[in-house]
Design a protein that fits this description.
Two copies of one chain form a homodimer. Chain A has about 425 residues and is α+β, with helices and mostly antiparallel strands. The first copy, chain A, has one domain. The first copy, chain A, is about 20% helix and about 20% strand. In chain A, strands 5, 6, 7, 8, 9 and 10 form a six-stranded antiparallel beta sheet that branches. Chain A is globular, with a radius of gyration of 22 Å. Bound molecules: protoporphyrin IX containing FE (HEM) (2 copies). One protoporphyrin IX containing FE (HEM) binds next to strand 6, helix 7, strand 9 and helix 8 of chain B.
């Protein structure tokens, strides 16, 4: 039998959003309407709408952190520079559609109905854009001899050093290209990565992929601070999208930083951090709070009452000891003890089943954006790896570093300046 | 330093829900208020509220399927019957609190503030109940010699046979006890399983655990039908909670079924089904629809226009072939060709990273409830395994069967009748 017998209707996602969706769709197709908006300004008011894809910076960095993550690192399998460029162009066009909540193409539209594989895999039909953002980054390995990019490798895109206690699995680390998909609906994030993987077939292969089920950071003052799997509020002293000046200092690569093609971009460090939640759960509340340096219930710095009270590193308790212990996580990670270095943290909680030893394979997929990892992640993590008491309960098992270029303007593509 | 210096506030989840939360809390503590409600009647109107834990049936079976899953199978590590019973009592008390959106106990309340580990792990503080349900089931292995339960093993709790094409990994299969946690918030579902695992420390160990990021079935006519990772609507012809009479025939174990302690309960079959999405995605739309027997866009049976139109197995196309192909999934699985047997499907989409071959480890964590697997899952799956064209694209890699007893009444505990 053939399917032409049946009066099927291809439901495109576009059709479902009425006027607002249509406007977005026009903007995407015409590559014009939203071009002046920056990522910061285009936050959707609710969490079902779209986040603007085009702008001076890539979305998904200072965008108010969405609830769910699908992160994928790809190995480039083609050795042809032209094929890689063609792929990045196709991905960019797809990303503009996906983030607008639209399917990629029509069902089987290529060779007449029914004869071709559907262009879109379909599992997001009926779902709203759900604030999907797609953020691309290029790993150090992309700058080897294959694509003639060696001279374009930014000095800041260093290979991360080995940190004390690291137990890094190569299969969960590195990657030529990373795509971070964030959305308030996990099916939308999964759909996006899957369709990019599919478009890339024969040119890239998924090296590893990570689902995050809950954000562990807030990146906007409008968001409540979520909790990580140690039960603590996480993201209180994070860089926030409202801190425009700090973002320029700490997150966005500036024209004077070298590697011209990275201006307006940011460096992403990803760390898969296993958390030994079973051991943590047997630690007393007092010990837990001493390790972090904040109260578990309120999230307030020890010695203070409210979450957003400033940390007082000088105050001493009745026992003469600093209220914020010298080896507490917030002290060791604080800019005051790191030459003013800060990070925009954007991590996600994960549980990937169990580990064969009766324990949940749970933890934090740490994602941090910054202007220069040599001055930010690396020194901070060096200090944490050396003295943070938290290390007794955590374990870094995956690692990546990626140069995420500036935003895409209508008509350009992801990484255009890199290949220029 | 001690933490007593700091004016911490233990924020209990209870405090956050105002009057409604307080009423629920009283009901739980007093084990009285809601006792007359059945699971079907107590659906929360929005998806942040609680689902009643007590009732004639366990919640989480006909409860309108929540969006997220955390499923865990446990091995019992104690060999003492008394310890197992004590655990089930503690779990039941905890489950009543968790499903009401309350923490288990107070932070460090046991030995004075700060000195004891917090009773609750804390990562759900500030989150609403989010329709959490916790559903327990007992696997065949629990009825071995250890706990004197051999004579209580229901005849319907068979060991599942090997089906053609099965490629079952023992580490992802079986289990003495399963707990299905469903919620509209994944952090709430993760928190619940984690705290049960923690309470069980030294008595049970997690054998395997599975996160599902999106439901693949609707179990109520009030729900829209979600899509699975093949992009098709899934759950259209599912048993629905509104079909009270059918539920008695097909889902709930009746007093005359033998194994008295199972009356009001149901048998759960779980199958971890890997879906070869990369291969599926290269299949034409026509072929995909022929394999399933429904249109991809609309979800309508082939030859019909609307999703909920009745399937016409007799109608032929202009080519003289049945519009619903003989080897299509919906024909082979339909009650008309299975002696009237039906299932209440309640599965979830999963993506567990990638498989080392450049492909996503993605699929369906199939969960189906039924009155008797010998008459329902086993014959249906035998037929599907033999002739379903879908088998070219899927792969059963995990398997479990569990006897889920009837509901818990206030004052009783999970499995009380089994141990009576
Ligand atoms: C599983 C591992 C980790 C856990 C559980 C954790 C947890 C926390 C918590 C609870 C806070 C306090 C709340 C806040 O201000 O956000 C915090 C702060 C912070 N963490 Fe972590 N963290 C982890 C790993 C890391 C890593 C690897 C880094 C960077 C190398 C890092 C950098 C920071 C920074 C910069 C702050 C803010 C400190 C301040 O300025 O007050 N954390 N973390
Ligand atoms: C990855 C594997 C599977 C996929 C992708 C899949 C997909 C589907 C789809 C798209 C439908 C049509 C919509 C609906 O009525 O819900 C359906 C129906 C159905 N499936 Fe599956 N299914 C899978 C595995 C199974 C298994 C293992 C069983 C049971 C052994 C099963 C039993 C059924 C039944 C009973 C129906 C309803 C048929 C009817 O009465 O019309 N499915 N499935």
């Amino acid at each position: 039998m053939t399917t032409e017998d049946a009066p099927r209707k291809g439901i495109s996602r576009r059709g479902l959003f009425g006027a607002a969706g249509a406007a977005v769709a026009t903007g995407v197709a015409g590559y014009a309407v939203h071009s002046a908006l920056s990522g910061e300004e285009s936050q959707a008011a609710d969490n079902t709408g779209p986040v603007e894809f085009h702008g001076p910076h890539q979305a998904g960095i200072v965008t108010a952190a969405q609830d769910r993550l699908h992160f994928a690192a790809f190995d480039v399998t083609t050795t042809k520079r032209d094929e890689l460029i063609a792929l990045l162009k196709e991905w960019t066009a797809a990303a503009a559609l996906l983030t607008a909540g639209r399917d990629i193409g029509q069902y089987g539209a290529v060779n007449g109905p029914g004869e071709a594989p559907p262009e879109d895999t379909g599992e997001a039909v009926g779902l709203p854009p759900a604030r999907l953002t797609l953020t691309i980054g290029f790993g150090p390995s992309l700058f080897d001899k294959r694509f003639g990019l060696a001279s374009k490798r930014p000095a800041a895109l260093v290979d991360l050093p080995h940190f004390i206690g690291d137990d890094i699995e190569p299969g969960r680390s590195g990657g030529d290209i990373a795509v971070q998909a964030c959305s308030d609906d996990p099916q939308v994030a999964v759909h996006a990565i899957r369709n990019l993987a599919r478009i890339g077939f024969g040119r890239v292969a998924v090296r590893y992929s990570q689902l995050g089920f809950g954000r562990t950071s807030s990146t906007s003052r409008a968001q409540t601070t979520p909790r990580n799997l140690f039960g603590f509020k996480d993201g209180t002293n994070n860089l926030k999208l409202e801190d425009a000046e700090k973002l320029e200092q700490q997150v966005w690569v500036q024209p004077e930083d070298g590697a011209e093609w990275m201006a307006g971009g940011s460096y992403l460090v990803s760390r898969r951090i296993r958390m030994n939640i079973e051991i943590w759960d047997r630690t007393s509340l007092g010990e837990q709070e001493t390790i972090i340096g904040r109260g578990k219930g309120t999230g307030a710095p020890l010695g203070k009452a409210e979450e957003f009270d400033a940390i007082d590193f000088v105050a001493k308790g009745s026992d003469g000891e600093a209220k914020i212990p010298m080896d507490s996580h917030v002290r060791l990670a604080h800019p005051q003890f790191n030459n003013g270095a800060e990070l925009l943290r954007r991590g996600y909680n994960f549980v990937d089943g169990s580990d064969g030893l009766g324990r949940l394979d749970a933890g934090l997929f740490f994602l941090a954006y910054q202007r220069d990892p040599r001055k930010q992640f690396i020194p901070i993590q060096t200090q944490l790896a050396r003295t943070d008491t938290l290390n007794e309960y955590i374990h870094h098992v995956g690692s990546g570093i990626f140069a995420c270029p500036g935003g895409v303007t209508p008509g350009s593509y992801w990484g255009e300046k890199l290949f220029a």
